[in-house]
Amino acid sequence: MMRKFIAKAYIWILLAILYAPIIFIVVFSFTEARTLGNWTGFSMELYKHIFTGGVSGGAGLIAAIKNTLIIAFVAAIVSTMLGTVSAIGIYNLKGRKRKTIQLLNNIPMINPDVITGVSLFLLFVFLRFSQGYLTVILAHISFCTPYVVLNVMPKLGQMNPNIYEAALDLGATPAQALRKVLIPQLRPGMVSGFILAFTMSLADFAVTFFTRGTIGLETLSTYIYADARKGGLTPELRPLMTLIFITILVLLIIMNVRQAKTRDEKTSIIS
Amino acid sequence: MGDKSDIIINIENLSKSFGDHQVLKDISLNIRKGEFVTLLGPSGCGKTTLLRMIAGFLQPDEGTIMMEWGKKNGKEEFRDVAGIPPHQRPLNTVFQRYALFPHLDVYDNIAFGLKLKGVPNDEISSRVRKVLKLVSMSDYEDRDVDSLSGGQQQRVAIARAIVNKPKVLLLDEPLAALDLKMRQDMQIELKEMHQKLGITFIYVTHDQQEALTLSDTIVVMNEGRIQQIGTPTDIYNEPVNSFVADFIGESNILNGTMIEDRKVNFIGHDFECVDEGFGENVPVDVVIRPEDVYIGYKLDGAQFTGTVKSCVFKGIHYEMYVDTDSGNELQIQDYDAFEPGKTVQMLIHPDDIQVMRKERVENVIDCVVLNETRVEMFGEEFECSPVKVPEGFAGRLEGAPAKAHVQFSKVDLMDHEEEGDASGEVWFILYKGDHYHLTVKTESGGHIHVDTNDIWDKGDIVGIKILPEDIIVELSDEQEK
């Protein structure tokens, strides 16, 4: 009885420590105080400001949000396509070659962001790319693609290896077989790869910071960083972060429910 | 059979290697229209590779596959299909693990090929219904394929293939994943389907019972080569070599000597037989099916006697092992049981004795001479008896290619591979009544054949040891000139 209690308490304390900062932000998004930590009574004013454009930070924040979403969307789309094609290619390699390529795919994921950012910065300078929107998107594609590969590979493993050949056998050209048979099979992996890529891009600071150049391109993360350094966080960022957190939470829940649903269907068939 | 006009696929001198490993060696085969042909062999014999080449998923290294390709001026036109991709070939495949499309329901799976060809919708729907009826799955068209049992999925897979009206249907071990009862039911249905459709079936299996039940023609394969092509009765009653005899059904395979025409000696007795043309006193392999030995406590015209060693009831018959008076063991099947320990009399009818030319009477191994008493074979050095140098030989002995002759019984196998001069894996085991005849595959890929009384298991790793005096080395022919 006691042991059970301790075990439960441990979990709750752990979760509390993990989520305390986020809960803190969420709670204080409902008050108007300029300084974080002061409670001046419940208010929805800050939320109103975001949607009515009356943000004290001005148009900069809106532009940063727009940039962030565009970059995340484009990077996620392109890396989903690239990653899926790469996964199919890697899957068809044999033995040692496949292991090597898989390892090469995993390295960028564990590589510290700062190093990825600096090395991409140096690469763009070396190639004389003028840095801005394009370089940030290219950089994001490069660090998002491995995650898509990682999400699509297991789907390929679960697939009956003869399915592609069956499509060819029934008269499909290789392109038709890819579109009508392979892609539908890989779709769950591609969707989770896309969502992961989207959130990775959304959250990135270091790589963006090093590859955005000097044209004054701001994404949400670089904006917040600059804003915080200017002395105090703009209060409207609190409800904004709350909204982003809730959006991602909802996305995650949707993904999990979808997975659980397909699993249930599979098990109910077997039983 | 000689009528050339009913051939639909003609395969000639087909070879294929994966890396260093040659999986198909010089395969030639004609497949006739409407025939049920089975490619039969143990796993790794190349049967699936051959099927995949016909389907177009693999390209041959050498040789040609010609396929009937529609009519031209009332005459069938043949085309070499090398380089023609699978989706353009007039055949369809039923895959081993069904390979249905899980994101489509039964109807859309079957309609897949027709939709690609742009067949009008109402025709698709009537053709799909027709094949669903043929495979007795009429009420299932809206079902998710994952919700079907293995047998039902297999039916859908067959329906999906035949709805396209292929000239040839390829089936790659289609029943392997089903349980025994279901497999037997499906065998009957496949046979009926074949008769109803009238198209050519090429069927791959490792199950000899299945092959015997279904086929018009069986192609027995082993180690990438065709061993025998024939009807099920031909293959069963007249196997051409000990591999086929051992693989198809139960059999006693014994060493014998052809004394003269119509007279063969084995298990220490002379028997009358129906075979001619082997020559006199030629060593042969003799195959006796267990059900062809007549057995009784007292038997008119008995040819030899023996002692019953064991007797087991097998449902329809009893299976007995009998030690003959000459010390050979025979497997015998009879409707009557004979008590172990009792003496019995036996006889074999002349036409139940299948005599086969021996594939080899000793090992002849390619080797390289290192010096007068050393050769390299299987990638290892062996000491040998002094190399026989032909008169007038002027070339260098060292490095000369040669052939080493080693008798089967002179090869010793060791438990530990380090104890031998070379090592290998037991690849094939044949019981010859009083000893085992093993084929050992050496590490370098060569084969050596061994007669032994010791019991080994397939896959055992063994050391190979041969005494120097048992290795007789002769220089290869071209060297002598």
Give a brief rundown of this model.
Chain A has 271 residues and is mainly alpha-helical. Chain A is 78% helix and 0% strand.
Structure description:
The complex is a heterodimer of chains A (271) and B (481). In chain A, 78% of the residues lie in helices and 0% in strands. With 271 residues, chain A is mainly alpha-helical. In chain A, helix 1 crosses helix 11 (237-270) and helix 6 (133-158) packs across helix 8. Chain B is an alpha+beta fold. Chain B folds into 3 domains: 7-237, 3-Layer(aba) Sandwich (Rossmann fold), CATH 3.40.50.300; 264-357, Nucleic acid-binding proteins (OB fold (Dihydrolipoamide Acetyltransferase, E2P), Beta Barrel), CATH 2.40.50; 363-479, OB fold (Dihydrolipoamide Acetyltransferase, E2P) (Beta Barrel). Chain B has 9 helices and 30 strands. Chain B has helices spanning 47-55, 106-116, 121-134, 150-162, 180-197, 208-214, 232-237, 242-247, 477-480; strands at residues 7-18, 21-32, 36-40, 62-72, 75-80, 91-94, 168-172, 200-205, 217-222, 225-230, 252-260, 263-266, 269-272, 282-288, 293-296, 304-313, 318-324, 329-334, 343-348, 354-357, 363-371, 374-377, 380-383, 401-406, 411-414, 422-431, 436-442, 447-452, 461-466, 472-475. In chain B, helix 2 packs across helix 3 (121-134). The model of chain B has no long low-confidence stretch (mean pLDDT 88).
The count of β-strands of chain A is 0
| Radius of gyration of chain B, whole Å | 27 Å
Global structural class of chain A: mainly alpha
Order of helices and strands of chain A: HHHHHHHHHHH
Provide mean pLDDT of chain B, rounded. 88
Q: Tell me, briefly, the overall form of chain A.
A: globular
- Briefly note the structural class of the backbone of chain B: alpha+beta
Q: Which word captures the global form of chain B?
A: globular
